[in-house]
Structure formats: structure tokens, C-alpha cells
Amino acid sequence: MSARVVAGLRPYLQREPLAALMLGISSGFPYAMLGATLTTRLAQDGIDKKSVTAFALAFLVYNLKFFWAPLVDAVRLPVLGRLGQRVSWMLLSGALVVLAVSWLAWLDPQQDLRVFAIAAVAVGVAGATFDIVIDAYRIETLKPEQLGVGSGMSQYGWRIGSVAAGSLALFVAAHSGWAVAYQLCAAFALPAMLAALVLGEPPRHVVAASAVGLRQAWVAVVGPLAEFLRRRGALLVLLFILLHKIGDTLANLTLRLLLNDLGFSNEEIATWDVGLGFIAYLVGIFLGGALYAAIGMKRAVLIALVLMAVSNLSFAWLAAVGHSNALLGFTIGFENLASGIGGVVVVAYLSALCNLAYTATQFALLSAAASVVGRVVTGTTAGALIDSLGYVQFYLLTTVVALPGVVLYFVMLRAGLIDRSLGDAGRDGGTR
What we know:
- This protein is mainly α.
- The chain has a single domain, classed as Growth Hormone, Chain: A (Up-down Bundle), CATH 1.20.1250.20.
- Helix content is 77%, strand content 0%.
- It has helices spanning 2-9, 15-34, 36-44, 49-54, 60-63, 69-74, 85-105, 113-141, 147-176, 178-185, 190-199, 214-229, 234-243, 246-252, 255-261, 266-295, 297-321, 325-352, 359-369, 372-389, 391-415, 417-420.
- Helix 2 (15-34) packs antiparallel against helix 11 (190-199), helix 9 (147-176) packs antiparallel against helix 16 and helix 14 (246-252) crosses helix 20.
- The longest helix is centred in the middle third of the chain and has 30 residues, at 147-176.
- It is globular and about 50 Å long.
């Protein structure tokens, strides 16, 4: 039995998945600074709901990152470039994240909400650029057969980074203020930077042509998209990616508003949403990895999509019942369990879609497309929808809008389009 346990753990202890863990930690913390933590900060400062939900547009930067992702693939940085294309960009983007979070730390939203919003967007730009580099480094470092394990370790890291930063921010803010809290959280950029320095350039990195001149720059931008669109079923894949996370994004980016209106304290939020949610997500990641290994990527993704859609019903249940720690625990547990499973298998699928010559650009395009619709709707209409429909009807609506993505994936699976759309990053990994 012990030998089987050791054998089961061995893939997680290899240097590539461990590096993915470190990368995930740094990737998760800027998102936490802009997500639930920022929502709580603004709500406690008395900012109205429509303004708070409008800050979800800062996340929109993450959905636009494919516009400058070709720079990460093609532009060689002066001086730092001697360390390698991926390593040099990792150091630069990590430093930019530290500076942007530090700027946001010392601003007061009550004094000038406009400048505060600009700083939040700056964190989004820096964090999105950091993500571009982190994702490319992870995919190119992992071997094809490590995509499932590596995606799981990356999700473990992402959750550790986001939860640790979110918890630290809440507890420090309660005693020393938000400025000190944000400043301390900026240190979470370091794990990815250190991992890149220790491991060096990823072995599967394919050197792209430098973007010198208009023609080369145009090829760097259009080439990755053109290569993807030439694959059979590419348009359906893109449509699926656009649709599948709408309901999940709407529900998650408005959760803290619900908890605030139901009267949950910072301590209760930290205990249930942050603490229990962290544990449930870790369990979900483990189950996602086991599911991936047992039935393969394609069927695992379908199961994850169904679970993520159904989990939104628990938000509606909580909204109907009101302030209940037991029901909050169930809601957070169910949602994070489903998200953990989906985080492993869906990220593995998106990674497998990439061509190694355009890793940064293609993954940026795919991951950005995965939540762009949900974030736009959240930032522009979620607050108004909650005011007009109420929380219960709003969360029932999020469940309904999650269904088209599930149906479309099932159609693609039956038509054999999943295998035909894969890139060379996932060709040798056994994606049955």
C-alpha cells in the first residue's frame, strides 16, 4: 500500500510540477487583490453597489491580454534578455506587479475613486502580463504527460496565493489598515520570479522570430490566431470557451456583495469563504487530478462543467435563507469543490490546445476568452440585475446561462472535435 502511495505522489514531486506550484502562487495573488478583497474594501468604505461591481471591469484587462501577449513571445528585452526570453519577462512583469499593488495600497477610494480605479486597472495590466509569462512558462516547462498533474499543482498554487493574500489582507487590514495589508501582499510576486531564476529557460520553449519591423510585428500578432483557426472545429472551440464560464464568473464576482448584505462579518467571511473554501478547493483539485487520470481529459471536462453549473444553485439557496453559517459552509464547499475539479481539467484542456511556437499568445487568447463575457456582464449590469431581480433570481439566472456551454461541449465531444482541435502541447499526453 505504501509503495502505491509513493508511486502516486511521485509525479507531484518532480521539479516541473513543483515549479508549476510556485508559479501558481504568484499568479493567484494579484487576482485576489482585485477580486473579493477589493470588493470587501470598497463595500466597507461605503461605495455603492453599482460602483463596486463596475470595478469588475478591472478584470477585463485580463481578457484583453492577448493583444500584448505577442510581445512576450517575440520581443527580446535589453540586458535582462540575456537570461532568456521567458525568465527576463518573468522578472520584469513580476516587478511591475509589485509596483502596481504598492500604488493601490496607499490610495483612498473615498478621496478619489477615479484615481483608485486607474490604480486598480494598473494592477490588472501588470497582473495580466505576469499571467501571460507564467502560463507560457508552465506549459513549456511541463512535459505533455505532466499537463494534468502540472495543471493541478498550478491550481493548488493559485489557490494558496489567492487565499493567503486574501486572508492576510483581511486580517492585517483589521489591525493596521488596507495600505499595510496590500503592501505586504506584494511579496507574493516573488515565488514565480525565484522559480524562473532557479529553473532557467523552459526546455520546450520554441524561439519565435523577433518582432522587428511592421511585417514581423503583424505576423507575431496574427500568426498564432491564424494557426489556431486553421484547425478543424476551431470556431466551435472558441464559442465554447466564450460561453462556458459566464454563469460561474457572474456568481463568484458578486458573492462578497451577497455576504455583505446578509450581514456576515469579516471573521465569518475569512473562516468560511476563505478558510473552508480553500480546503474544499484543494480537495476539488485532488479529485480533478484523479478524475483526469481515471477517465481522461475529455470526459472529465464534461463532468466538471455540469458540477460548476449546478453549484450556482447553492448561491440562490443561501440568498433565500439568509444569514446561516451552516448553509454558507455548504455553499462555499460545493462551489469550491466544483471549481477545483474544473480548474484542473479545463486548464489542462486549454493548455493542450496551444502550439508551442505561440504558447504565450494562444494561451492568453484562450484563457482571456474563457471569462470575458461574464466579466463584461458583471461589470456593466450585475449590480443593476441584483437590484431589480433580487439575489435569488439573479443566481438562478447564472445557472441558466451556464447551460449552453455544457451543451456545446457535449456536441463537440460527440462529433470528435476535441481531439482534432488540440495543438502540439497536448499531442503526446494521452488526452483520451
